[in-house]
Amino acid sequence: MLLTVSMNFFSSLIQVLSSTIMKPARTVTHIEVPYSWSNVTNGEWAAQLLQARIDEWCPKLFGYHMLKLGGLSAELTSHHCNIQHQISVDKFSSYRNVEAESFELPFVEKSFDACLLIHQLDYSTDPHRLLREVDRVTVDDGYLLLSGNNPLSVNGFCGLLPWNRNKAPWNGRMYLSSRVIDWLRLLNYEVIYHETFAVLPSTRHLTCSAWLENILSEPLSAVGSLYFIVARKRTFPLKPIEPKWKVRRQLAPLQVNCRTEACDKMAKRDAAYKKSN
Hints:
The chain is of the alpha/beta class. It is 33% helix and 17% strand. The protein has a single domain, classed as Rossmann fold (3-Layer(aba) Sandwich). It is built from eight helices and six strands; from the N terminus they run ααβαββαβααβαβα. The longest helix is centred in the N-terminal third of the chain and has 21 residues, at 2-22. It starts with a helix and ends with a helix.
């Protein structure tokens, strides 16, 4: 009996993992988007970890305008950022400055020097379209900071439990960070920083959890619950392609105006031979 239950569990786990990795990015299913970290299970824990990464990168950003897309992005502070003018876009968050759809941002092309997308791809019905829209409003050499949930993690496996499927973050669509990086490269973005962290889920024993996290973070970083990516928009191909054809050198005969001594000897020899015959 126990063996049968174990086999059924692992078979269902394999099916879920394969569907998670191979599932199409676009969906017609409605996704309830959380507009605050209080609407996400262990949201305060995730927000603190992401805030530490943002505080590290904000002083490295320069420009005039910064876009925070979504309520989760708007709730994270960026006071240490050199970009003073910051706009938060969402439909329900109390921190928003502009109320608009993420697929149709009311800004002209190349308006922002940096864009912050915290967990926005996980709750988007069309992440490709969302990235294209963000790319439209980002200046050349602008920065894109984004994060998401890792499906191949302890926190991701908790979504297999029936009572968690309708709760955030498991009601969203988690993507592997490698897949997101492929999407960014197709849009000609250079990934300059990538980190997967939070191997252990949130617990009440913070001291013990932090100690174990420091030990397991390096060998098990690939199965961390969260990922954080910093990419930069480039205007030239990142990998130049060499042409298959090559120009071959063509040797052309040179016109010599002077006759060499050897040629003169051969000419005299031919003339003497003709006279003798």
